[in-house]
């Protein structure tokens, strides 16, 4: 098993930029499954609009355990992701919390688990879930330290993806604004030539038409520009 420092080094080498979030999370989850002491199967639960889902997993054990919790809307991965607390189950046959989930998970191979919250801008966005078929698999400090490191790497990946999405939205909005400004200037030019008015008067004509017909200023401008092009 790799030492915790080696785990962090490997996680830090995961490329974030220019990749889909799902691919990055798959890499991190695979590293966690290989490197966290006691881990046999690992998953990443993300919570969006208060709805949890498995964004990546390594091994079917983790995916099945996650889905049992989603079905009950209760379990360590959900509570860790919503509440920001580390939750460990040493033995599913002795655990008294989450009774409905426990009744179902005891029918599977899972005997112990560790769920570590994913920090994000002062809150939490989900959890890293680590499962084993052996009881008491995650009681060592090394397991927790490696889990915390992997959870931090996942949170960084999500933050990076969100930042790229925000930049893309800003660029798109800027492009739309520039296109709107350009067509409005074109329409003003048409009105200035047709009605012999100055730029301010041309804009006022557009504004009044927008209010009169309850249409966006840009749409009024597009109509004026298109009408001149159709006349040619």
What would you note in describing this structure?
With 232 residues, this protein is an alpha+beta fold. The protein has 2 domains: 4-167, GAF domain (Beta-Lactamase, 2-Layer Sandwich), CATH 3.30.450.40; 170-231, Arc Repressor Mutant, subunit A, CATH 1.10.10. Helix content is 59%, strand content 16%. It contains 8 helices and 5 strands. Strands 2-1-5-4-3 form a 5-stranded antiparallel β-sheet, with helices on both faces. Helix 1 packs antiparallel against helix 2 (21-35), helix 6 packs across helix 7 and helix 6 (141-195) crosses helix 8. The longest helix has 55 residues, at 141-195. The chain is elongated. The chain starts with a helix and ends with a helix. The mean pLDDT is 82.
Keywords:
single chain, 232 residues, alpha+beta, Beta-Lactamase, Arc Repressor Mutant, subunit A, five-stranded antiparallel β-sheet, 59% helix
SSE blueprint and pairings:
Elements: H1 4-12, H2 21-35, E1 41-48, E2 51-58, H3 60-72, H4 76-83, E3 87-89, H5 99-105, E4 112-120, E5 123-132, H6 141-195, H7 199-213, H8 217-231
Antiparallel strand pairs: 1-2, 1-5, 3-4, 4-5
Helix pairs in contact: 1-2, 1-6, 2-6, 3-5, 6-7, 6-8, 7-8
- Number of DSSP strand runs: 5
| Overall helicity | 55-70%
Number of domains: 2
Rounded to an integer in angstroms, the radius of gyration calculated over CA atoms is 28 Å
Largest beta sheet: strand ordering: 2-1-5-4-3
Order of helices and strands: HHEEHHEHEEHHH
Sheet of most strands: 5 strands, antiparallel
CATH class designation of the largest domain: Alpha Beta
The name CATH uses for the topology of the largest domain is Beta-Lactamase
Structural class: alpha+beta
Shape verdict? elongated
Q: Which CATH architecture of the largest domain?
A: 2-Layer Sandwich
Uncertain segments of ≥5 residues (pLDDT<50)?
none
Please tell me the overall pLDDT: 82
CATH homologous superfamily of the largest domain, by name?
GAF domain
